[in-house]
Amino acid sequence: MLSAKQYKSGVKPIWCPGCGHFAVLNAITKAFAALEQAPEDAVLVSGIGCSSRLPAYINSYGFHGVHGRALPVAAGLKVARPDLNVIAMGGDGDGFSIGGNHFLHASRRNVDIVYIVMDNEVYGMTKGQASPTTPASWEHSKLTPHGPEVRPFQPCAIALASGASFIARGYSGDPNGLAHMLFEAVQHPGFAFIQVLSQCPTFCPEQKQWKETVHLEEVCTDDPVKAAAFLHGDDGLSKGIFYRQPRPTWPVEHPDTQPTNLRKSFEI
Amino acid sequence: MSAGADKKDSPLWLDRAVFLAHSVALEQEAADRMHELAETMAVHNNPALHELLSSLAAHSDSHALDMKALCRNETLPRFKAWEYSWPDDESPEIFHYSSVHYLMSAEDALQSALEVEQSAETFYRDIADNATNPAIKQLAEQFATEEQEHARSIANRLSALKAGFQNDLSKDPDQTDFDPPHTPE
Questions:
Q1: Which residues of A touch B (CB under 8 A)?
Q2: Which one-letter DSSP state was computed for residue A14?
Q3: Chain B residues close to A173, C-beta within 8 Å
Q4: Residue A31 near residue A213, CB atoms below 8 Å
Q5: A4 vs B90: CB contact, 8 Å cut-off?
Q6: CA dihedral defined by B29, B123, B50, B43, rounded to 10 degrees?
Q7: How does pLDDT run across A163-189, given as a tens digit for each residue?
């Protein structure tokens, strides 16, 4: 049995001091320790951005891929190797902008993977531009002097509408609670989405306030209508597992279809 | 443990082994978080703060080893990270991520270190004052006194820094940010 610390690789994170992604890293190692995860049976797949560096910091297999494409890589890997614990991850820009369409369809397909989005509401690696989840009135970037003036993307509501079967929101100020969510998400059969409010102390210092404003909501339901009602009235600062309803995963198995008669299945 | 009225029914307040398991975790997590922050400062080319935080982390390591030595003949329960009965989301003796910044000074770091030591003292003092198990009361009193000593030691370093008596620590890194945020190329 490995301790949480033993799941860390020797690579030192380059994140800014105080970055919420450290908490996500610690939550993953704590969840792995609780799951008694064999390092060789886990794969972390990421896109591009500050948060997408995370696989390098974990003692398991990792794939630091292409911008916005963590989910198709992770889904393909899981389909090919269903025995592995596949966890995709990235940031809000990676996952909801360039990778937004993959997010919709990964939710819809319900492949048995976990997707963690470290949401700091900003493109940090490129020095602080507005992302899909940036508040409309956020005026800190000189590229959007009046703020983005666009309603922020609603990740959990969109995941629900698209078919994700496990939806949760964690907070980097609560790595133990986040570790618990991950523990549950890994064991959930299907696409498990976790949005993590992960503060960016460099470009969004106002997110320090999350320590006071993030609140726990114990509203977990298996009823999508109730989940939708909650998420549409949500202030975006609640944490907890909001929705959990196992349903058939993709790919669907066809035991009678063997490689030798595959051609016949596709005959016109 | 959010419901204050129920905390005395928690195994933390009733079971000596559970109490000691929390004490070991508290010291180890304090050391781990301090090392993490020290290494981050090294990565961000702040050798002065790296040195200061590493020295604080070394003290935390020492406290963690002392606690483990105290428990070497005990059979302690194993908890998952979220199963501990901390008063807040994390153990009381660690820096909250929101208290850290790349421009933090030595004074900021010592102030935060002081606050987490005081937080640990409060945690133990609360148990010492209110637990009904005499063995736990005695241990909690002892640990509260030790945390008070740690806090006093850091408070002395902080006072010396403020007074400029410790030349090595008074040389804070230049706080001018030569690569400030929000400057698009």
A1: 4-5, 12-20, 22-23, 27, 30-31, 33-34, 127-129, 140-143, 172-177, 179-180, 183, 199, 201-203, 205, 207-208, 210-211
A2: -
A3: 89-90, 96-98
A4: no
A5: no
A6: 50
A7: 999 999 999 999 999 999 999 999 999
What are the helix (H) ranges across B16-133? 16-43, 47-70, 106-130
Q: How far is residue A137's CA from residue A146's CA, in Å, rounded to a whole number?
A: 7
**Percent of chain A having pLDDT more than 90?**
91
Distance CA A54, CA A12 (A): 10
In three-state secondary structure terms, A53 is: helix
* Residue among B82, B97, B181 minimizing CB distance to A23: B97
Domains with residue ranges and CATH for chain B = 10-72+85-170 (1.20.1260.10)
CATH of domain A12-265: 3.40.50.970
Cβ neighbours for B63, distance < 8 A, ≥ 6 positions apart: B27, B30, B31, B146, B150
Mutate to test the interface with A, among B27, B52, B89, B108 (most CBs of A within 10 A): B89
| Residues whose CB falls within 8 Å of the CB of residue A68, separated by 6 or more in sequence, listed in order | A47, A48, A90, A94, A95, A97, A98, A99, A100, A102
Decide: A172 and A21 in contact? Cβ < 8 Å.
yes
Does A180 sit within 8 Å of B80, measured CB to CB? yes
Angle between helix A175-187 and helix A21-35 axes, rounded to 10 deg: 50
Q: pLDDT (tens digit, 0 to 9) for every residue of chain B, 185 residues total? A: 444 457 778 899 999 999 999 999 999 999 999 999 999 999 999 999 999 999 999 999 999 999 999 999 999 999 999 999 999 999 999 988 988 988 899 999 999 999 999 999 999 999 999 999 999 999 999 999 999 999 999 999 999 998 875 555 545 555 677 777 765 54
Report pTM. Answer: 0.94
B139 contacts: CB under 8 Å, gap ≥ 6: B16, B19, B20, B23
In angstroms, the CA B109 to CA A266 distance is 66
Q: CA B154 to CA B171: how far, in whole Å?
A: 18
Contact A268, A200 (CB under 8 A): no
